[in-house]
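Internal ticket - ligand job 463, 2-oxoadipic acid:
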Amino acid sequence: MASNFVSADAIRTLFSHAMSDMYKAEVPQYGTLLEIVARINAAVLQEEPALAEQLRASDQLSRLDLERHGAIRVGTAQELFTIRRLFAVMGMQPVGYYDLTVAGVPVHSTAFRPVTDDALRRNPFRVFTSLLRLELIQDDSLRAAAEQALSRRAIFTPACLELIAKWEQQGGLEQDDAQRFVDAALETFRWHRQATVSGELYKSLRAAHPLIGDIVSFKGPHINHLTPRTLDIDRVQQAMPDHGIKPKAVIEGPARRQCPILLRQTSFLALNEAVAFPAADGRFSEGTHTARFGEIEQRGIALTPAGRRLYDEILDRVRQEVQPAGDGSNKKEYLAALDRHFLEFPDSYAELRSRSLAFFRYGARPDAAPTNIALLPENADALEQAGLLSFEPIIYEDFLPVSAAGIFQSNLGDENKQAALAQSNRQAFEAALGAGVLDELQLYAQAQHASLLEALARLKGHG
Ligand code: OOG
Ligand code: NI
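stdout (structure tokens):
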């Protein structure tokens, strides 16, 4: 049957717009943040024509305004399983495994995102998705109460489940179904003021860990933030207070650099929102909950395993010297240590490439002259030096566990708890997911290799 299926990219774009509109209505500061980011991005592009040109050349300019990620936290294996199927409809695959228990947060996570160059160019929307590790609740009766609360809820509407099944059967959705799917899927991520547990249970869950209270006590995995991409995160961080938004004390990730690497992120603190807990007499008791926040990020080049090792080593050294305090009291010392230690990380694209610390997308120079150098992948360096190949940074599309832990922690409210240290458990996560997670490093390596082969084929065409 010739199909009129809407592309996964188009469904993802519909959905990311719908989600952004919903979150703007729910959390007005997010709308303010979008405006600040748009204004500063425009200013940066005007002030730095070379950067604008580089973004244009690497096809990032067109995606910049719609680029954002979100985050959710689910409670059960079953929920995670269906979330994977839901995101598949939008061309989003689970990439990477993040164990946050090492940082005292009782979840493990993956990021659902598009994986091909084309899909990323059209809309790189991603959702950082965490699964609660219920087994880390020490108290047996509290764990049982949490399990019960989670087993009673249905986070997907019947229409949503039906359309996911239809997509799986047909291999696509036509226009009307695609729109119905987007509307239905959005319901899963909506905020609900009414909790599903008593105020008392909520308090105990929160005492076990603030995140457990957030994940277990409500009707569904409300979207807890949406994050636009900025071209100058320091400038946005500085501008936030002028608009009544209070950012977290320090920016997570590497120091500011000429050639941005990986990911730098900062957030503003969670709102204190009014909620209502069901009471025995059929009434509700009023309370508050802190869950939702805003975040911005600046993305840079993806690092090879060697580059990533160097990044992790340097960050580790910084944090052994100074742990950034949540209240910002040692911010100066932390930033000084960050700047000093990151001097060791090469800060030119040429050196990042010659030392194989980062991934690049190759292209054939349009004015390339015929050459005696054999057009083989292993001769890439010589071909580049002879002026035949160009290279552009491949942007990091994923997340960083230490940064993610910092973002989680800044948004858990005052009673910041350490979870019991636990064994990393990727197998259990993948079993719940019903699929393996893709290896992000392999995706970048493939993208680099494919671009090189294509560039060489072009040069042969010139030959
Ligand atoms: C997710 C925190 C991690 C990021 O950008 O690193 C994250 C959460 O709070 O659920 O979104
Ligand atoms: Ni985030």
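Auto-summary: The first strand starts at residue 68 and ends at 74. The chain has a mean pLDDT of 92.
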